[in-house]
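User: Predict the structure for this protein chain, please.
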Amino acid sequence: MAITASSRAPLGGGSSDTERSPFIRLNELLAPYQPGKPLITLAVGEPQHPVPDFVGPVLAKHIADFGRYPLGKGIEPFRKAASAWLSSRFNLPRPLDPESEVLVLNGSREGLFFAAITAARYVGPRPGKPAILMPNPFYPVYGAGARAAGCEQIYLPTTVENGFLPDLDAIDEATLARTVAFYLASPANPQGSVASRDYFIRLKQLADRHGFVILSDECYSEIYTRQAPGSALECAGPDFTRVVAFQSLSKRSNLPGMRVGFAAGDKKFLSMFLELRNVAAPQVPVPLQHVGAVAYGDEAHVEENRRLYRIKFDLADQIIGNRYGYRRPDGGFCVWLNTSELGDDVAVTVKLFREAGVRVVPGSYLARLQPDGFNPGTGFIRLALVQDGETTARALHRLVETLG
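Assistant: Here is the predicted structure, written as structure tokens:
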């Protein structure tokens, strides 16, 4: 069935549960209960691997820079390091200009939020109410950005039938004509699906035809156990027009608390983006940018990071096996399990907490209702394999023993 312009969020003030943080909802769900065994948290995608050794010395070297306000665009060493890393990591049409095509962010999340507001201004008037498209399930900041931009949120269900990526052929022309931005996460959160080069090309063709911006969330691109995921920038053309990729050191370098990332791509968009961020967005402390510059110049710690995740996915392969529709994800560190045969995903989440001491997220909390009442996350639970290998194995054994 085609996804039409009516495929929108329920109208109203945004006070329904589906508008709230899934983690706040999870806290409220589990508050009445106690974990049946010593708690193991697989709910939050917060990397627990060691912080790279170079972080402390770099911070110490630049400690005096905490005494000055940072420039919004970022320091030159960081932007050059990010540009060089992109060129070495991806097959780009040409190197990005660090002066005009790379912009530091206070973590990718704030960048993804402010990018929606920029996209609405950048694209300009649309025929009808402007819309922002996003996968469903999705990272909640996409919806928050669309609301802040005054755009209709249109959810594109990602299911096993479409490979857990939005079905581009199912979007009708009227919706595309009023689209200002398209959020895509590759690797996807929560399912770990990865967009192919052909998929990125087709999406870019739609963006060019209808004039919208692709906001490509690639913060999980360095977490994979087999083939390295690609980037939307690889298929963006020589000027990266209408394509902006978002990266973060949170997952790549185990630095979620440092809040450093960047946006790269369309220089006209980034120029407008910077104007907005200069008056509304948080700046990135200079010492942290120096850490980021070193991090993007070092691959040894990233390769070690992948090795540790590979061990844990090997454990998942062995312990979960073919239960619950499990498949090893193409990217990211999440496991998306279909527990629908065991009952409601919320009830399964409570059962795992009360009986196994394992904290997970109900899939329905990560998605929104489609107009027909279907929630693509219903019947699934998400596990984030962020703990050490021994703890992960213990949690997975408990899960299988509890769910059968």
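The longest helix spans residues 300-320.
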